[in-house]
Amino acid sequence: MGKRRAGRELLRSLSKKQKKHLREFGEEHPFYDKVSACCFIGCYCSHLWFSFQSEDSDKSSAESDSETEVEQVSGYHKLLATLKTSPESESEEEEDESESEEAEESEAEMDSKGFQETGEGGEEDKNDVPEEEEGTADTAEQMLSQEQADGTDPSCDPRHGVIEEFTDVKHESEFSLETNFMEEESGDCNADRKDSNPFKQHMDKELEEKEIEKMSTLPKTSSQSQWPRLGQLIFSSTLEKHKTLKADKEVDVKQLHLHKPLESTWPKVNKQFLSAVDKPIDFFFTPLQRELFCVMNSYRDLFYPERNALTNGEEIRHAYCLHALNHVLKANAQVLSNNAKRRDRKLGTDTDDHRDQGLTRPKVLMIVPFRECALRIVHILISLLEVNDKKKIDVSNKKRFKGEFGSDPEEKPPNLKRPEDYEAVFAGNIDDHFRIGVAILQKSMRLYAPFYSSDIIIASPLGIRTVIGAEGEKKRDFDFLSSIEMLIIDQADIYLMQNWEHVLHLMKHINLLPLESHGVDFSRVRMLNLNNWCKYYRQTLLFSALQDPQINSVFNKHCFNYVGQVAIRNVPRTGSISHVVVQLPHVFRRLEADSITSVIDARFQFFIDKVLPEYRDAIMSHTLIYVPSYFDYVRLRNFFKKEDLNFTHICEYTKKAAVCRARRFFLKGEKQFLLFTERFHFYKRYTIKGIRNLIFYELPTYSHFYSEICNMLKATDSGVDATWTCTVLYSKYDAQKLAAVVGIDRTAQMLQSKKNVHLFVTGEN
């Protein structure tokens, strides 16, 4: 009975999101840190799963460098292992947390649970599990099944995690494009008029084979333009030079060619942002939205790397939601209008003028990092469709959607003190495994529509990856991506902290010919889809908080829009080093590498040969080594163990107890070095006390992390300013990151000179 009661109490203590992660993956989201877990699924990112196992099973200094053996333990097994804690380990953990500034937060997150603490590094040994635990795990599974049996279908209950993905099938006929017709009052009077309608101009353009061959072989030509709000724009295209696009100073709603209901609803929905503008030029857009929408409405690809969750994030979200919804409404209006024409045509007549569809129905794919983002997008779409308070649109499965995508205020640990940008990024439901289909037909919206009956698909990279699957898997599907006409990737920088491989996997499987017909009427399919030219018509909108080579690569190598691409390329003048408030000498040490592929090995060799020997002396204690890449972190950790250096380490997979212990050892000087990963800082933002010497193994991905880490030195009361040091390793391939830290002028000087650069920041620079 004791085991059964313990299992019941354990399950009741889990929130709905934690239960969902436990059911699906056998592990929890890293944000909560109750169980050693990560949000990157092992079956689809084997290298990260391998790294996770190597971190979790590290129990001796004789660890193999290859780390190829992986021991798999069930999620229930690991979860229940946390209940088997000795009083000594509990008291030691309480002592660790009392010495940490995160004491109150740790108690809230851990919920009075202890951790098994073994080994010098403070990591939990998964083999050290009591024999009774297996039976307890079985009991937990029985209790979980009993909990499901006591109520209704758990897949329909928002309090439980979704076991089998729910799709709405009962509204199929109501939202079918093939069996419905245009309603006059909701129709778009310009649906069939080509004129200057951007949608018609873009989709009705018939490319020739020689133009397709030209786009596939010839390089792009580019030109520059300066806009008042966006700054420097780079226009690029392979085909003949298009008419120069200029920013509109004023916007006439008629010139936007918005679908009928959007003309009246958009000003009301966007009113919150217009009120913040001192002297609004028009009553429809903020200056940023006006210039962004000007590019979007021209159906060019767009890369905007200056998205900020605190300032302009919601402005941008509203702008691309308007554009996406306008595209869907126009496309559906065209189909419904042609349905009526085909119905009323004379018998015996045949026409080829009604090609208005793709091989599959989904037209817009929105990639966002968290469920909270999907929730906000759906709310914006609903608001744009509701003309007034009296005319509410019918939204199916709205209650379920709020339950699964909404957030519970009680789930957030109390007493969290984090930077404002952290609070903005991690607001609401931060589950990163989801996907949902949205069908829109005139005055109704259908949530949880099957993908092949959806107009818009909103998903996370992980959520879409698990559907696409991997080569060789029996259950995989990516036909629904065949006719995507608009791809929106928002907050792309966050995917660098999750798993960028998921984004690359998506780009490889989008706009491919489907393997099955899926009931399509081929007489209605556009020739561009039949010719497999859809990727040349797809518009890609890419928003990020920074410029990164991996993000740039996706925009340059996976975007083939025949109209061309527009990238915002503003260079930082000052850099984040100006926000360092402590008096600190910064030494930038340049390393040489023959190519971008060899820079990883060159950096490691430069570090162990030139940098590390200077810090081996005991006088250079309290040295924090900031490592952006997890693979570099594993490599350094193994080297430090091999050399028997006095160090501790913290990464995104380290357990709470081990983190507390590592921080205590480092603060007291018991450990000379602290290896510290960028992902851990991104997800936690802890202040590390006791730093006297900083080494940036590589420049941080987020430029403001540089000033944040440097400013941690002021948290050390016993430190002497004159002894503080900061060393940064960089190469010529780090030009973008370097410019974001020191500014473009200093970057140019540093790249021209091969000497080390010494900068002294007084806090006023």
From TrEMBL:
Residue stretches of biased makeup (Acidic residues): 89-109, 120-136
Keyword hit for Cell membrane: no
Residue ranges annotated for the UTP25 NTP hydrolase-like domain, each copy included: 299-566
Keywords on record: Developmental protein, Nucleus, Phosphoprotein
GO molecular function: rRNA binding; U3 snoRNA binding
GO CC term (a single one): small-subunit processome
InterPro entries in the cross-refs: P-loop_NTPase (IPR027417), UTP25 (IPR010678), UTP25_C (IPR053939), UTP25_NTPase-like (IPR053940)
Pfam family, one: UTP25_NTPase-like
Subcellular localization(s) per the UniProt record: Nucleus, Nucleolus
Principal location listed in the UniProt entry: nucleus
PANTHER family xref list: ORF PROTEIN-RELATED, U3 SMALL NUCLEOLAR RNA-ASSOCIATED PROTEIN 25 HOMOLOG
Function: Component of the ribosomal small subunit processome for the biogenesis of ribosomes, functions in pre-ribosomal RNA (pre-rRNA) processing. Essential for embryonic development in part through the regulation of p53 pathway. Controls the expansion growth of digestive organs and liver. Also involved in the sympathetic neuronal development. Mediates, with CAPN3, the proteasome-independent degradation of p53/TP53.
The protein's name: U3 small nucleolar RNA-associated protein 25 homolog
Source organism of the structure: Cettia cetti
Source lineage: Eukaryota, Metazoa, Chordata, Craniata, Vertebrata
The encoding gene: Diexf
